[in-house]
Amino acid sequence: MMESGIEQTLKPVGFQILKQTQPSVEVKNISKKFCKHLKLNMFYGLVDLTKNLVGIRPDTTTLRKGEFWALKDVSFTLRKGQVLGVIGTNGSGKTTLLRIVSGIFPPDTGEVRLRGRASALISLGAGFHPHMTGLENIYINGSILGMSKKEIDKKLDGIIDFSELGEFIDAPVSTYSSGMKVRLGFSIAIAVQPDILFLDEILAVGDRNFKAKCYKEIDKLSSNTAIVFVSHFMHKIARVCTDILVLDNGKVVYYGDDVAEGIDYYYSYAVSDDQSVTGEGMVSIEDIFFRKEDGASQENGTFTIEHGSNFTLGFKLYPSGDNKPLRLLITFHDRDFVNVATTDSLVCGCEIRSDASPRDIRVYFEDFPLTPGRYSMSINIEETDSKNTLKVYHNIKDLNVTGKFRSRSPVSLRTRWEASQSA
């Protein structure tokens, strides 16, 4: 956890007090380099410290042997009411960026300006003394975040109630589970009523009900708080963020207010779509194709279809010949491999038996409900009676759904709306 003053500028040379203006967070061309080797890192640190002591500013713009750019020329602005989602693969620089903008360490080049009280929840248990009780840590962290004892006393019951720790508030933090630490840390962070809030994947742990409560609190805060939210879970980014920044190898590769487009861009390079087949059942699928309404067929590559349109999926099924009833399930996954939609041959009343003859399977999709984005498709074959899975074709086809309107939900419900004038 951390706290900034009314307004701060974080530069390579330190902090500077500024006048109150918007935006709440201004990041200008910041870069940060690290060294891969411990001994070289210690040597460079000693050299830089010596230069600073004698009044010589170290060169922070070039790389020395063994160094690399963890961040390079990153810029963005954030105002109250905005929630910036920061995404990227492991090692892309997300946590480094958050630590710099929250003031944990300075950038090598560029500057960060924070205007207002800032609170951060970056690493699990950060700022907690493990041998002190939860109650004692509330006062310690509250003081670090700029609250007076009187203010903490006033908010204490609310912090404890929100954390749901109950009698465990008097137990040492070292005895807490990861979820309990998150509860306490988040409860303290929001009690500050910050102007700026930094969150780094902190809600990846904890029970479902508390996570839901946290997201509701984020919704309340977001109207009058600038929030930077780092996560690997795209549904969380889509759920809370108004803007998005995508990092790759320390560089900004996408920045804007189209969250869905930013997520799609991330998936375009970050997710592997390798096909695989599991199961040892004596059944197989071949000759998969898609056919649009105009008759155009496609067998290879990504299938592109318009949201709300009709198309046909076809393939040849080679059964085992034991004449048992089969059930086929076709499942569509988002880029996090979360199931978003399915169609079931049994539910749809299509009888398929594992006889000796190959079967031509056709599945007709009408008013395709998946919203614009990229999806993958899997086919599951199982015995109807025993429910034994015979074979699963994972990521057998990719789909690119296009459309005029983007959505933060994967499925658009088919509804009819009316708006009439009230009497």
Provide the fold topology.
Elements: E1 7-11, E2 14-16, E3 25-35, H1 38-53, E4 67-78, E5 83-88, H2 94-101, E6 109-115, E7 118-121, H3 134-144, H4 149-163, H5 178-191, E8 196-200, H6 208-222, E9 226-230, H7 234-240, E10 243-248, E11 251-256, H8 259-270, E12 276-278, E13 284-292, E14 297-298, E15 303-306, E16 311-318, E17 325-333, E18 339-344, E19 352-353, E20 359-365, E21 373-383, E22 389-402
Parallel strand pairs: 5-9, 5-10, 7-8, 8-9, 15-22
Antiparallel strand pairs: 1-2, 1-6, 3-4, 3-6, 10-11, 12-22, 13-14, 13-16, 16-20, 17-18, 17-19, 17-21, 21-22
Helix pairs in contact: 3-4, 4-5
Helix/strand/pairing category: alpha+beta
β-sheet strand percentage: 25-35%
Helix content: 10-25%
CATH class identity of the largest domain: Alpha Beta
CATH topology of the largest domain: Rossmann fold
What's the structural domain tally? 2
| CATH homologous superfamily placement of the largest domain | P-loop containing nucleotide triphosphate hydrolases
- Order of helical and strand elements: EEEHEEHEEHHHEHEHEEHEEEEEEEEEEE
The major beta sheet can be summarized as: 7 strands, mixed
Number of DSSP helical runs:
8
General shape: globular
Average per-residue pLDDT, rounded, comes to 86
User: What is the CATH architecture descriptor of the largest domain?
Assistant: 3-Layer(aba) Sandwich
Global Rg: 27 Å
Number of strands: 22
